[in-house]
Amino acid sequence: MTTALRARALGRSYGRRWALRDCTLDIPAGHVVGLVGPNGAGKSTLLNLAAGTLAPTAGTIEVCGGRPGDGPGQLAKVGFVAQDTPVYAGLSVEEHLRLGARLNPAWDGALARERIARLGLDGAQRAGRMSGGQRAQLALTLGIAKRPELLILDEPVAALDPLARRDFLQSLMEAVAEHDLGVVLSSHLVSDLERSCDYLIVLVDSRVQVAGEVDELLAAHHRLTGPRRDPARLPAGQHVVSARHTDRQTTLIVRTEDPIHDPAWSVSGLDLEDLVLAYMDPQGETGPRPTLEVRR
């Protein structure tokens, strides 16, 4: 499996405060990867380190086979749309395209202009007078038209209304299909990840809690409900992700590749939101959680 991003003991501090610390991570190439975690987990810091807009304080990071920000060749491999889909308020759409052509050696002007026309954006309109959805589409166009190997999107749709968010994600998936584009998408909106991502990473306190292809992760996780019992009594192959108890009942989220034969349990599947929340939930009563990765 080729790797789009590899981090080893990666950290970034601001004085005495660590925004990201001891992060070890592998993101495979050729996927639309959803990166999710609670506020403060280090997602935005990780993505800015990957884009080369920040330098690490500790550890190493490699993106598309090179060090982020290490010269024009490396910069050309990565497209980055930061939070709030930043564009220049005083520049028109056309001026953004001309700037993109000057700054990016592999710039695809035909692709950019075709997208702008298809989206119905006015080339003379200044970005500061556009709607949030239009600005997001402009930022996405700039990211795609530089023809990167990896496109990094940090909460690009968080401030958009549901219709604009749907249109943005539809445009993204069309670009992935047309241009063989790898994507890392950070989002708090699990419904967006369900529609767009085929690979999931949950990051909590700078550490990967679970990583793998979405279909395989969902197939390997189950909800068990039954009479109250100690999770430590489960078979060795059943890894407890989270546990909740009432006086008489226990509900567990477990990861296992083996069949569950115990008739005392009622077994059901999870959706993606269930899976994400199980790994993010600080109220889990399971002690340290294993770092799990599903591989092909």
From TrEMBL:
Keyword presence, Transmembrane: no
Gene3D superfamilies assigned to the protein according to its UniProt record, in alphabetical order: P-loop containing nucleotide triphosphate hydrolases (3.40.50.300)
Domain ABC transporter: 5-230
Cited InterPro entries: AAA+_ATPase (IPR003593), ABC_transporter-like_ATP-bd (IPR003439), ABC_Transporter_VariousFunc (IPR051782), P-loop_NTPase (IPR027417)
GO-annotated molecular function: ATP binding
Transmembrane segments: none
Sorted UniProt keywords: ATP-binding, Nucleotide-binding, Transport
Protein name: ABC transporter ATP-binding protein
